[in-house]
Amino acid sequence: MFNAGRCNNYRQDADAYFHLSAQRAAPAPNWRVALSPSGWPVLFSGWIDNRESLATDFSAHQAPAGIADNAAFYGAALEAWGETTDSRIIGNYATVVALPDGRIRLSRSPWNGMPLFYAADSAGVAIASVPRPIFAAGWPERLREDAIARLLAFRTDHDQATPYEGVHQLPSGCVAHISRHEVKLERWYDPLALKPTTLDSDEAYVDRANALLREAVQSALKGTRKPGLQLSGGLDSGIVADEMLRALPEPARLRTYTFHPVDEADAVVPPTLYADERPYVAEFLATHPRIEPSFVDNREVAFDNRARALFLAGGNAFPGLVLASAHYGCFEAAAQDGCDWLFHAGMGNITISNDSPWAWPEFFARGQWRELWRLLRNRPGDKRSVLRRFIAHGLLPNLPAKLQETLRNAVHGKSVGNGFGNTLLQDGGPAAAQADHDPSEGIATAGEMVRTRAEWLEQTYRHCGTTGEMPLAYAQVFGIRLRDVTQYRPLIEFCITIPTTQFARDGQRRFLARRMARGRMPEAQRLNPRVGMHNADWHHKMAGDLDGLRRRVEAFADHPVIGPSINLEKARALIDSFPVQAPADPTAGAEWRFHLPAAMLIADYVDFVTGRNSR
Prior knowledge:
- By secondary structure, the protein is α/β, with parallel strands linked by helices.
- It contains 25 helices and 20 strands.
- The strands form 6 sheets. It has a 6-stranded antiparallel β-sheet with strand order 3-4-5-6-10-11.
């Protein structure tokens, strides 16, 4: 346990089972591992959204409706349906089942299902939701050198890999059977194999999306005692908040949590973004009086806030953690208010409010010139001519990747990009060697734009399968459970299979969400083309600790793992040239805001795992 407590435990012959019923919970007396009807031991993490409908499909003698425990329910389902079980279940989960033939069956739901890690050799198998228990069971805790180089290069690792030698992750939408001599992996879920969804009218798409969102909200609220919701000034969380209030019985109220920059930050904001959520949230609150809002400025939250606690709890580190810290104040406030769940709409950007980044090249390739022209004209803040936009967003993405990169570099030079592709890497160093694009990964480099919807979907699904351990880490560190309401498989599958023109139409992007939001929020918010500026006060916070940041840069010099990969002179120059005011263009500030802090965070992670004392 993270908090020095103990989890539920049970031994059966040579097998040992451990289960944490809730974050920071005391062990349950006389806990026993759940069993299937035939006595197969089952462990289950997560939730099942469609239990009621599944129960009617069982044979009568199995009486699943009376099974309260999800683990026992899953065991009964597995006995009834075999290897088709996971395709029938809607939810976010991971399972471990000890089969009677001696094999161990692992499963993980699609779309960022609950994480599952394992290590196996001839002596035995260790399986856990986070890596730490695997090391406690005796597996050596050794980092893969190439994994750290990939983290520094901001490269996504293989979907079965972890930073540790010999420790593997079960990918989303997969089942694995582990025996003494082998591991057999089956990828039963393929988002690219889903059939297109075609409905009779534009209104039918909105009606169906609203119905699926209603299902998602109702499922999320089951069993909650005091729900909270992270609320921004944008579309996704506002739509979810409105739907939650419709689902909650009168006079129940909904707690919401909104983070904002410190007032004295005076962030420089480009015309396409807004820095402070409060004005939009205030207008939303005026039409939703049952909301009890909290506003959090994260004043004491630096980019590496609670980093070591999260390393311990989750066993991993990701460059994006330096940006995720903006949410920590909301986590803490919700826990202090006694919320048992904090909901959010993190996957709204790939579901209801998808901004369809493939739309421009798709309209170009299909000759849909009218739609392409309207989209290109409606680009706030883009000072280029429409012809230049046509070339950049229509023509260029349809060219081969290498040619794209060559042409972009010829016009713009080797750019910082949008936060991907670390510009602090030392030429010829280990991380630089990992930075080159590997076509087998299906991941675009910083200089490329997504070219097709299929390419976007492949990349998105791959990314959704990573970092699944972080919600579990947050639960341990902050004492509150997190759930993404928009991570509801029927809603995801609907949104990824409907026509592009349901997301981009008449020069307007996020077309589906804007129609779903009609009547749910003020019109100024519903039609606002700008989006929230993440970590808008980064400059203010970093400016107050330049001496500390300089010391951490100097520590790169003799770091045995990080040092060879980082261009020390460039890192020093970033500190020495720290601007008096944040650049108006977020891209221009990416090296200070993201690249440098991410390198520092990864260095701390390496030191934490290896026991090196660098500070």
